[in-house]
Design a protein that fits this description.
Layout (H helix, E strand, L loop, with lengths): L2 H6 L78
Length: 86
């Protein structure tokens, strides 16, 4: 994927970090529904902080759990009957 094609794709989620966020250990929650079954991930950094010419990323971490470790019996029914689909 090149920059032109990355800009033309619609992002699943867009994050905008302020300069104050750069050196902090912050956790940014993602849209749970969109990231339930991820097989691949592409990150596109459209702009640099302060208009710099290069982007330097020291660390990005993702917190999650594999699907096979999720016990669906642990979740409580919110609405509807067993077997109903949305």
């Amino acid at each position: 994927m090149d920059f032109d094609s990355a800009e033309s794709f619609e992002a699943v989620q867009t994050l905008e970090l302020a300069a104050d966020d750069i050196n902090k250990d912050i956790i940014i929650p993602l849209k749970f529904v969109k990231f339930q079954n991820v097989l691949g991930l592409t990150l596109f950094f459209q702009n640099n902080q302060g208009g710099e010419e290069t982007t330097v990323v020291d660390y990005i971490g993702f917190i999650g759990s594999p699907l096979d470790t999720t016990n669906m019996e642990d979740f409580k029914r919110v609405a509807g009957k067993k077997g109903d689909r949305h």
